[in-house]
Amino acid sequence: MNETAHALGASRTLWELVELRAGLTPDRPVLLQDDRSLTFGALRDRSERVAAGLYELGVRPGTVVAWQLPTRIETALLSFALARIGAVQTPIIPFYRDREVGFALRESKAAFFAVPGTWRGFDHAGMAHRLALELPEPPLVFEAYDTLPDGDPAVLPPPPLTGRDVRWIYWTSGTTSDPKGVLHTDRSLIAGGSCLAHALRLSSDDVGSMAFPFAHIAGPDYTVMLLLYGFPAVMFEQFALPDALEGYRRHGVTVAGGSTAFYSMFLTEQRKAPERPLIPSLRLLAGGGAPKPPEIYHAVVREMGCQLTHGYGMTEVPMITMGAPDDTVRNLATTEGRPPEGMEIRIVDGEVRLRGEAVCQGYLDPAQTAAAFDGEGFFVTGDLGHVTESGHLVLTGRIKDVIIRKGENISAKEIEDLLHAHPAVADVAVIGLPDAERGERVCAVVEQPEGAQELSLGVVTAYLRGLGLSVHKLPEQLEVVEGLPRNETLRKVLKYKLRERYS
């Protein structure tokens, strides 16, 4: 990390970071969207005016404000305006509906709720007013899509001085139970973004991209990186390929990504015209949020002609480890990278535990917080892995993804990594299903590329035998699907839905 970025990374609050960057490079762009752009100076000035408008509405330091907004310049302005006031903000993914949104409003006790009106055919304002009627203390609902509150910054109190108070409530994506409200501070988000920035070896000449919901924990993670290094990112309100390619090319994006599913989508487009670069300016794909099979790494480097670095993070700890572009091929293909200074990783009975500034403060529910940390203050992740001699983290799966067949533990990830290399497999999820005789049986659910001959269980098991997989790990059930169920943020496969479907 260069000296300027290192100094900025020590900022006490996100607003202090905005002010410092605006003072250094006020005229450089920070956010690009379609034919619009916002400079670092305008980010500071316009956010302060929005903060004044919110203050006149009644938002004060500590006021809980929920917002469910798409990835837009206006969303970033609203979020930084709330940071200027020192409000507690709780971002909600735009694709969530009544159950998840109602839960978030109720549990956070939000006093205000910003929505986009009708967006992508769904009436968010109508849902918000409907849910407000069900709450004992309904939030004030307002639309913040094209038009934001505006006021005179002279009315504002001084900005917050400490970044160690809880000012963010993020929501884990619920599976079969309600989501958890994850508590973050400005400093934990700055620490996460600093880790990402340091690992990727970026410079002020780069152009990044946000193809994920800004309401995801990756939103501040990525924005902190922009503020530290002073380069812009292209925002995509609706990400879909090939339509989004024009934006990448027009703005000369050098760094793209999101998660493993995004890598696969870029590869699919590249294979349609392998003779020319998909995005001529692109030099790096980077992301996290879901396991990366080694074959995906090799395919990106070989076919797209750019580097791929992958990392490990979660809502509770936005950045834990990250691959560095100048690392070895083996480490980039088979590990999640190394942790930054200040992130402690401890392996207890094969499980990954974490302690450091980027770790959340816990959950809204004190009982969930107590269960999430061990006696020495390490966060218990539920992920399995080990640390190599070089300090790289290797993830081997989730505890709940360990399949126990006749008393033997089987790693779903091991089988998935092998199947990813099969030419007739576009993506795969391996799950354990209840079995009266075996306890659990191994089931592979496969999504195939267009035009591929349909796989059979015999072909799959023969292929895995040929790669030396132990017989007791071979799938006993194969399901071929048009598309694996995914969430709407980083396109992570929802295995619980597959277990429900095939159990």
UniProtKB/TrEMBL annotation:
Transmembrane segments: none annotated. Keywords: Ligase. Residues 414-488 form the AMP-binding enzyme C-terminal domain. Gene3D superfamilies: 3.30.300.30, N-terminal domain of ligase-like. The keyword Disulfide bond does not apply. PROSITE patterns: AMP_BINDING. It holds the Pfam family AMP-binding_C. GO terms for molecular function: medium-chain fatty acid-CoA ligase activity. It comes from the Bacteria. InterPro entries: AMP-bd_C, AMP-bd_C_sf, AMP-binding_CS, AMP-dep_synth/lig_dom, ANL_N_sf. GO terms for biological process: fatty acid metabolic process. Residues 21-364 form the AMP-dependent synthetase/ligase domain. The keyword Ligase applies. PANTHER family: ACYL-COA SYNTHETASE (PTHR43201), MEDIUM-CHAIN ACYL-COA LIGASE ACSF2, MITOCHONDRIAL (PTHR43201:SF5). Belongs to the ATP-dependent AMP-binding enzyme family. This is Cyclohexanecarboxylate-CoA ligase.
